Amino acid sequence: MFNKMTSYYENLKTICLSRRSVRKFAPKIVPPEDIEKIKTIAYTSPYASNRKNWELVVVTDNTQIRNIVDQVGERINDLKMKVREDLQEGFSQYAAHFTEFGTAPVLIIPTFRISPGLSVMLSDPEENVAKWERDNYVKSISCVAMLVLLAVESLGLVGCYMTGPLLAEKEIGDMINIKKGRNIGAIIPIGYCQW
C-alpha cells in the first residue's frame, strides 16, 4: 500500500541530500515562474511571533549584481587595511569567497524588520531582552532562507546561503532600496550549475 507520508519524507530527504552550495553559475536565465515558485515556498516559513514582517528582494539585473559585488569588494579592501599585517593574507583568502556570486543570474535577498515586543513592555528595558528579540528574527529569517534553498534545489537550480557579503549590508541595502528599518538576512545567489 502507498504510504503518502513516507513518500513525502523520501522526496524531502532526496532534495536535502542533493543540495550543495554553489557560487559559480552558467549564463542562463532563471524563468520568472521559477522565481515565483521559490517565493511561494519561502512564504510558508514559520516566523517569530507568527509575524510576516519580512520580504524577499529579487535582483535580476546583471549590472546591479555586479555593482553589489564591487561594493562588497570595496568593503573587504577597507577592512583588510584594518587587519593586522600578519593576518592580512589569511583574511584576503577567506574574504575572497564573499564576492563569488557575480555570475549568478538572480540574487534572492531576504530582508526583515526587528519588531520589539517584550522590550517595549518593560519599564526598564534590558539589553539581553533586546538581543533575544533580535536573535528571534535572525533565526526566523534563516528558516525562510532554508526554504528558499530547498525550493531552488527542487527546481533543478543551485544556490548558496551567503552572509559574508553582509559586511557591506548598509551599502547593499542602499543599492537595492530596502525599506527603512529593515535588515538583510543573507544573499542567496541562484541559477544553473556551471558544469
Description:
By secondary structure, the protein is α+β, with helices and mostly antiparallel strands. The chain has a single domain, classed as NADH Oxidase. 48% of the residues lie in helices and 12% in strands. Strands 1, 2, 3, 4 and 5 form a 5-stranded antiparallel beta sheet that branches. Helix 2 crosses helix 6 (127-154) and helix 3 (62-80) packs antiparallel against helix 7 (169-176).
Provide the descriptors you would attach to this structure in a database record.
195 residues, alpha+beta, NADH Oxidase, 5-stranded antiparallel β-sheet, 7 helices, globular
Number of strands: 5
Mean of residue pLDDT? 88
Low-confidence stretches: none
Outline type: globular
Beta-strand content bin:
5-15%
The CATH class designation is Alpha Beta
